[in-house]
Amino acid sequence: MKTSLIIPVYNEEKALPLVIEEYSDQVDEIIVVDDGSTDRTFEVAKKYNTKLYKHETNKGKVAALRTGVEHATGKIIIFTDGDYTYPAKYIPNFVEEIEKGTDLVLGSRLENAENIPFLNKMGNHIFSFLATYIGCTNITDSQTGYRAFKKEMFDKLNVDARGLEFETKMTVRAAKHGYKIVEIPIEYRERVGKSKLRPIRDGIKMFFALISVAYSETSLLAKMIIIPSLFFILIGLITGLISIYEKIMFGILSHAYYPILTTFLILIAIQLISIGLIIDYLTKKLDRIEGRLLK
Q: What is 3-216's CATH number, 3.30.450.40, 3.40.640.10, 3.40.50.1970, 3.90.550.10?
């Protein structure tokens, strides 16, 4: 199948030539989308045999990816970053998995992980755990920008996002819909140039993005099980805060059973949420299997 590599770039004049040169013999076409760069990125990209598009203003990484997909002619779409962190040598493995029927292939940054800054690494572990929990699918790197899928899958995997939360939402949506996800361990290199990731701000966005996709992609039956758990969590937090206040202010608990009640309510809530997510996952997985059998 023909492969289209999409590289969204914003002020990557130093790294972009290295990326294009490395990937040029691994894919059938390279699409570079300059998202309103203020340096010489666009001029540098002109020197190479690529399909080049430019946003006059910075619209965000996701807008650049969508522009790239819109103009891609390949059946297999591959995303990578323009900062030279993702090696091209894994492309054959990605293509092989797609041809075997995988819906979404992720390049999991398990090798040379020391090149990931500490805060980014910690956030990645947290969000990958949440993605695994919400999607009921083991995911070690939900935020990787190195991924592949069939072009026809893009509309199904596309999500409402503007920034770096896109990858996490896309991964969780694929898991929630029962699509087959395969992770390939990859080497992660130190980036060329300055990182644009802001761990705290982007981390908050990713958290709310996960909550958003978890709610919107969950079936009504699962919601009927999950929503009551929010009430238990609320009551548990209230009794827990009362216990903490009494202990700090008076040194004793006038409601000695509150800590036990807090623990009990939160555990019940977690169990209900887990049951709801599992039911949702199994229902959608069975629907996917039925759909394939009918085809």
A: 3.90.550.10
Q: Residue 113: what pLDDT? A: 67
Q: Residues 6 or more apart from 61 whose CB is under 8 A from it?
A: 8, 10, 35, 162, 163, 164, 166
pTM for the model stands at 0.81
- Residue type at position 218: T
Is the pLDDT score of 48 beyond 90? Answer: yes
Burial tier of 132 (Cβ tally within 10 Å: 0-12, 13-18, 19+) = middle
Domain map (residue ranges) of the chain = 3-216, 220-294
Residue 68 burial by Cβ neighbours in a 10 Å radius (0-12, 13-18, 19+): buried
Q: 235-285, pLDDT tens digit by residue?
A: 999 999 998 988 888 888 877 888 899 999 999 998 988 888 888 888 777
More confident call, 288 vs 141: 141
Q: Please, which pLDDT band fits residue 46 given cuts at 50, 70 and 90?
A: very high
Q: Which residue has tokens 């939402």?
A: 169
